[in-house]
Amino acid sequence: MGDVFDNGGGNEQTFNLAELIQGWRIGIPKIQKGGEIRLIVPPGLGYGSNAVGPIPGNSVLDFNIQLLNTQ
Questions:
Q1: CA distance linking residue 25 with residue 16, whole number of Å
Q2: 65, 40 contact by CB (below 8 A)
Q3: From residue 46, how far is each of 20, 21, 30, 34 by CA, in Å?
Q4: Which residues contact 49 (CB under 8 A, 6 or more apart)?
Q5: What's the pTM value of the predicted model, to 2 decimals?
Q6: DSSP string, the chain
Q7: Is the pLDDT confidence value at 62 over 90?
Q8: Position 71 confidence tier, pLDDT thresholds 50, 70, 90
Q9: Predicted confidence band at 1 (pLDDT cuts at 50, 70, 90)?
Q10: Residue 7: inside a domain, yes or no?
Q11: In this structure, is residue 71 part of a structural domain?
Q12: pLDDT band, residue 35 (cuts 50/70/90)
């Protein structure tokens, strides 16, 4: 079990796909508008051996993502 490092504060968030970690750039396009996905991202597709904020290096990242809209 891990720690939650960002839950969006319960608010909708907007991201530029090109600026996200590689795991999201691969996974997000697989979701249709209104869909949901669980992405388990290995370190090589996340932050690698680098620590980022509260996330230790070599972390496996586990995301639950709901795609509300695309542009």
A1: 10
A2: no
A3: 9, 5, 17, 24
A4: 43, 57, 58
A5: 0.82
A6: -------GGGS-----GGGS-HHHHHHGGGSPTT-EEEEEE-GGGTTTT--BTTBPTTPPEEEEEE-----
A7: yes
A8: confident
A9: low
A10: no
A11: no
A12: very high
Q: How many independent structural domains does the chain possess?
A: 1
Range of the domain at 32: 13-66
Is 33 within the bounds of a domain? yes
Residue 47: CATH number of its domain: 3.10.50.40
Where residue 41 falls among pLDDT bands split at 50, 70, 90?
A: very high
Tokens at 32, concatenated = 């249709």
Residue position matching structure tokens 């999201």: 24
- Whether 3 is covered by a domain: the verdict is no
Q: Give the model's pLDDT for residue 3.
A: 73
